# Entry
Amino acid sequence: MVKIVAKKELNPTVTLLTVDAPRIARKAQAGQFIIFRLDEQGERIPLTIADYDREQGTVSIIFQKVGLSTQLLGALEIGDTILDFVGPLGVPTELPQGARRICVIGGGVGCAIAFPQAMALHAKGVQVDVIAGFRSKDIVILEEEFNAVSDRFFLMTDDGSYGEKGLVTNKLQELMDGGSRYDAVIAIGPIPMMKFVCKTTEPYQVPTIVSLNPLMIDGTGMCGCCRVTVGGKVRFACVDGPDFDGHQVDFDELMSRNAVYREQEAEQKERHTCRLEQLGKALIQ
# Structure
C-alpha cells in the first residue's frame, strides 16, 4: 500500500500523482513502469514511471482518465492510499553505446513517458532535442518541464493553436534535412505516430526506439496479452520491453490486435450500462 503525497492536474483529463514508494524509487530507471490496483476488486493497470526521487523515496505517475480505474485513481486526493503499486517493471531504456545527441519525441499523453527519458538523458550530459506534439493548445502538458531538460524544445499542434502547426514527423524531417545528426531517436505516443517516426528516420539509418503499450495484465510475461512481433519474433512488452527497435516492430499487427474488440466495445458502450461503473461514478461524485 502506498500513500499519495502530491497531486497536480496537468489538463482536464490528465493527472500527475506522486506517491511514497521508497523501494521502487531506489531502483527505478527511465523506461520502466508500475502496475497499480486500487483495491481488492480493482483491475491491474500499467503506468510508466514519470519521475522518481531516490532521496525523498517518491515515485510519480501521469495518467489520462479514460476508464473506470483511472477515473477512480484521479478522484483520490493527497493522503489517500493505493492498495497495490508494483514495480519497477520492464527493461530500462538502452541507447546505442556512446550516444551523445538524442531526439526525444512525444505525442499527446505519450509525452508523460517521453519526459523521464529526456530528463535522464539530460542528467547524463547528453544533448537532447525534444519534439512534443498535441492536437491543440488546451491539452498541452509538461511544457515547462521539457524546456528545463532539453537543449532545444519544439512544440507542435495539429491545428496550429500553439507552438508550430504540424506533426512531430514534419519537425523531425525538417531538423534532419537541416543537418541535425542524431545518434538515436526515442518516439513515444500513438502507434501511428511511432510508425511514421520510424519511417522518417529509416532512410537516415538513425536507430529509433519506441515504447509499446499493448494490452497488459500480469506484467510477468505469463498471460501473453502484451505479445508483439519484433524482427519477425514474438516478444512480450512487459518483460522484453516496453522499449523496442522501432524499425523491427510490426506496427500493423500491433494496431490490429489493439483494435480487435473495438466494435464490440462500441456496441457495449451504446447498449449496456455496467453496474460496477455506475457504482464507481457514484463514489467519484
About this structure: The chain has a mean pLDDT of 88.
